[in-house]
Amino acid sequence: MEAIPARARAYVVCVVLGALLCLLPLPTVHAPWWAVALLAALYAGCEQIARRRFAGTFYPVLLAAAFLLPPPAAALVPLPGALFSHVDEGSPWLRRCWRAAQLALAVWAAGRVHWALGGRNAVVASDFPYALLPALAAVLAFCLVLTVLDGGILALAERMPLRRAWRGLFPRSLAPIGVHGLAGLMMAVLWRSPYGPVAALLVLLPMGVSWWVFAQYHREHAAHQATIRALVQAVDIKDGYTRGHSERVGQASMMIARQLGMDDSRVEVLRFAGILHDVGKLGVPTRLLRKDGPLTPEERRVIELHPEYGHEIVRGIGFLGEARAAVLHHHERLDGSGYPYGLLGSQIPESARVVAVADAFDAMTSTRSYRRARPVSAALAELERCAGAQFDPRMVGALMLALGKYGWRPAVTADEPPDLVPPAAPVPSRPGVHR
Prior knowledge:
Elements: H1 6-23, H2 33-54, H3 60-68, H4 71-76, H5 78-83, H6 92-116, H7 119-124, H8 132-157, H9 162-166, H10 169-192, H11 196-201, H12 204-238, H13 245-259, H14 264-276, H15 286-289, H16 297-303, H17 306-314, H18 323-329, H19 350-364, H20 376-386, H21 393-406
Helix pairs in contact: 1-6, 1-8, 3-6, 3-10, 6-8, 8-10, 13-14, 13-19, 13-21, 14-18, 17-18, 18-19, 19-20
């Protein structure tokens, strides 16, 4: 967001006013102000480290404050860390005020829920497992406030429907915030124990180690994505007529894999397989890829080497797993008439059978320099006709079912005006039955 819309700014102002209302009772609150200052300084330090090193937010200290302090005092804890945090994008003070107000409201809500359920007494008495229920309710309140406010600012700043902006935010954030809440509860219990605040700070050490491991995983995953993106961009630059084809084949492969009930890690690998299936075109002369007329037999043989070129390119990329076999064998046919090795039936790796169907489907529903796109229903009918000889019937059926549920919107892949592409036909409930 380079420019924040006026309605989003007004929303931020309203959230800031709400946070100030939560702080109004402070003059009448009896709280250990040294503890408020210590927790605020601790959170500010952890926040700086988390944002600069791990690109995330560190919640255990905030939740510990909600468990230890009266709600208005607890709402003070995130303010210094949020107001003086590093902001890369425009309108830094508006963003800082937004973040400070959002966290203050979330901590206040968590503290109110925790105190209303008697959580303070359970923490003071180190009364387990009775301390868990108020803490769990407080974590839910904390998570709910954050997701509601995040969805609201997303809807206003990005002009997105509220339902779409809120979709999935709460479930995705609940697990990580729940782990932070458990660490915050451990901090609060140790803080109130005879060992005091020093023992509570020791909880941050294993949390920091686990956070570092998690950040390393995400960095590695980001590096994988960057590797794939670079290869796909190289193919798109070389073969401009099929720009975007790789991403759509990856999407269709993922739809087939999910319909077949594969686990998430394998679905991701098959998405990679679909995206990289044509990476071997980097080894094919550009004049052949962009030739408008029919290919000679010699030229066709050169192009049919691209699966082997692709396998050589990705062979050393270990995280691709079975995607490498899909790159090599996605042009094999069940009847043995495919290339490069003429494999038969089950000799063809399952990943290659998935990508073969996804590749053919997108090729038929995309406009190329030499023909117009087919309607989705016609492409599905053709896949069904060739099932058993060229394509695996199981993969074809999975694609049909997935498209029946979610539909498909083919895009223009050639450098032609969009009005040359016929509108996407709705996918029938039983696709392919009307030939």
